Amino acid sequence: MRRLRLLLGLPLLFGGLTAQADECTPLLEGSLPALRGKERIDLCRFAGKPLVVVNTASHCGFTPQFKGLESLYQRYREQGLEVLGVPSDDFKQEADEAAETATVCYVNYGVTFAMTAPQVVTGKEAIPLFRGLAAQSAAPRWNFYKYVIDRQGKVIAHFSSLTKPEDPKLLQAVEQAIASPP
């Protein structure tokens, strides 16, 4: 699936608009409901961008990693990094209500990166995004598994829950994804 993206603010060619076609890789096809509101997050909006995807849970010992994930996002967002949080109750540690999940993310930890409504991330019922992540690397074995995806939509590294967002190996993978060609 190809998406045509108009790039405004660049020098105009021949007095018209400059256009660039970003291919939406199979990993990023589709959309997911946002954690807040009734909008959907079009995953193709991440095409051509370095991306960290993490499955989250509100009542997990690793939940404080939201703070580090937000710091990671703030540190690298000017260089194009996107972070996508995907809450899940697959490991029985997510809130029963999406409103409580939103409070944990947005109020308790000040998250500003994209968050979806809770999703299934493991097994046969996993959403296509996580089936694709598992096919390219490994399925999450617990909450706060982190996947670093380059600008071409390839998983270049994945990290367990034990890896904190400020870990030098994770930062190195993020910088590699940022430096990757579109």
Protein topology:
Layout: E1 2-7, E2 18-23, E3 31-33, E4 40-42, E5 51-56, H1 65-76, E6 82-87, H2 98-108, E7 114-115, H3 128-136, E8 146-149, E9 155-159, H4 168-179
Parallel strand pairs: 5-6, 6-7
Antiparallel strand pairs: 1-2, 3-4, 5-8, 8-9
Organism: Geopseudomonas aromaticivorans
Keywords: Oxidoreductase, Peroxidase, Signal
Signal peptide: 1-21
Structure overview:
This is Redoxin domain-containing protein. Belongs to the glutathione peroxidase family. InterPro entries: Glutathione_peroxidase (IPR000889), GPX_AS (IPR029759), Thioredoxin_domain (IPR013766). Keywords: Oxidoreductase, Peroxidase, Signal. It holds the Pfam family GSHPx. This protein has 182 residues and is an alpha/beta fold. The chain has a single domain, classed as Glutaredoxin, CATH 3.40.30. The protein contains 4 helices and 9 strands, in the order E-E-E-E-E-H-E-H-E-H-E-E-H. It has a 5-stranded mixed beta sheet, with helices on one face. Strands 1-2 form a two-stranded antiparallel ribbon. It is globular.
